[in-house]
Amino acid sequence: MTRTLSRTTAAATTLALAAALASCAPAEGDDGTVEVLASFYPLEYVADEIGGEHVTVSSLTPPAAEPHDLELSPSAVRSVGEADLVVYLSGFQAATDEAIDAQSPEHVVDTAEAAGLEGGTDALDPHFWLDPTRLATVGHQVADELSAVDPDNAADYAERADDLEARLTDLDTRYAEQLTSCQGATLVTSHEAFGYLADRYGLVQVGITGIDPEVDPSPKRLREVRQIVEDAGVTTLFFEILVSPKVTQTLADDLGVATAVLDPIEGHVDVERDYLEIMGDNLDALTTGLNCS
């Protein structure tokens, strides 16, 4: 009986010790990777680039979905609490903010502070990722938090953040060089998603609507934009993939000017193309539509 109790006690002690050690180890996915949950595509892109083979990244916003309108199922809300790291932008998606408040995940990166959000005409402009230098700063923020979750791979995360910064710096240089001759040009967009891009490269953004793409422009605003287009000699109005082009196209037809697509990269429509490639497409659209020579 004594030997039986001793074996039982020893087994219990071993199990308790194993449980204690497990509780101290970083949480891992089924394949041993760190589970990262991003709220929408640009943050998903950064997390994947920084984490590499050490992470499994998923997004709360499905491909081709409008992130402004995100609604989360109960299982999606639970996933916020189960992820090893959550990367989001506070104030951008109410459903994500509410899920984080409800689930209180241990490791969270709120990119709002690192991105240095600034104001638009009716609210803070969330579209910081359209300035590559701001996205690079967020990359280092993600690397720091991944290192806290998974310290064994901290050096790799830091190295990958440096590599991403180098690629984003190259992109920034391309934009600056190719848009030099467009300094001061008027950029008319369907909604004010391109303020950071415009500020970075010396353009003047004029949004037909404000930060919220779902708010229809007033007749007064349409008259104002019409006057700006005529006075500035604008030849192209830019609309987006995920928002109806009807208002922009109608205004362009009335004014006799062209239209072109400029992707705010909020939702990932073409999953075969990544952030850098889409930004390259945007640069081509800008140099053509703004008549940069």
TrEMBL record:
Residues annotated as signal peptide: 1-27
InterPro entries, alphabetized: Bact_metal-bind_prot9 (IPR050492), Lipoprotein_PsaA-like (IPR006128), ZnuA-like (IPR006127)
Keyword annotations: Signal, Transport
Highest taxon, organism lineage: Bacteria
A molecular function (GO) term: metal ion binding
Bilayer-crossing regions: none
GO BP, sorted A to Z: cell adhesion; metal ion transport
A Pfam family the protein falls into: ZnuA
Similarity comment: Belongs to the bacterial solute-binding protein 9 family.
Protein name listed in UniProt: Zinc ABC transporter substrate-binding protein
